[in-house]
Amino acid sequence: xxxxxxxxxxxxxxxxxxxxxxxxxxxxxxxxxxxxxxxxxxxxxxxxxxxxxxxxxxxxxxxxxxxxxxxxxxxxxxxxxxxxxxxxxxxxxxxxxxxxxxxxxxxxxxxxxxxxxxxxxxxxxxxxxxxxxxxxxxxxxxxxxxxxxxxxxxxxxxxxxxxxxxxxxxxxxxxxxxxxxxxxxxxxxx
DNA sequence: GGAACGATTGAT
DNA sequence: TCAATCGTTCCT
Length: 190
Description:
Structural class: alpha+beta
Distance between the termini: 29 Å
Low-confidence stretches: none
Helix content: 10-25%
Order of helices and strands: HHEEEEEHHEEE
Oligomer: single chain
Shape: globular
Number of strands: 8
Strand content: 25-35%
Largest sheet: 8 strands, antiparallel
Number of helices: 4
């Protein structure tokens, strides 16, 4: 499985959001390898009022403006982390939120991290998948092309992509910037 | 220094 | 439908 590289992530957020569907997120941990197929994403870019990068660089969002292919992890609602992939050339504040995965490898470890939730509840939401993988603020800024956290291309993918409204935002609600694999049971919301 | 507000989740 | 829970941002 080839690892996604810098030139893949350098593209605009919408393109990357769509092309990430069907790829595999992998994290090496001391207890073993965790893998999940990306089945749902959302695109955020600098001109988007709903994006953290909309108001320019802040201490929290500076990694969004950094080089593509790095992890942007933020803490939300006082209890959850969300994992994003930084997109677009350095200097532009773009990212793709990974909203849902289909568990592939390390399922027992994910169940431990998620307090033994059922398989279909392990990674079907951004806060859930971060918890299942043990992703926290310490992963913020990691280089996905050079670290234990990476994304890989799979073989032939024959899925259909559904465009939909993003979840949980109060600005630019009408924009169809959420993408998911049609029919996949791990999508957070259809 | 203080207050309002979340790119969510799970329980009611 | 609503509470949990706290870092980030913005205002004073």
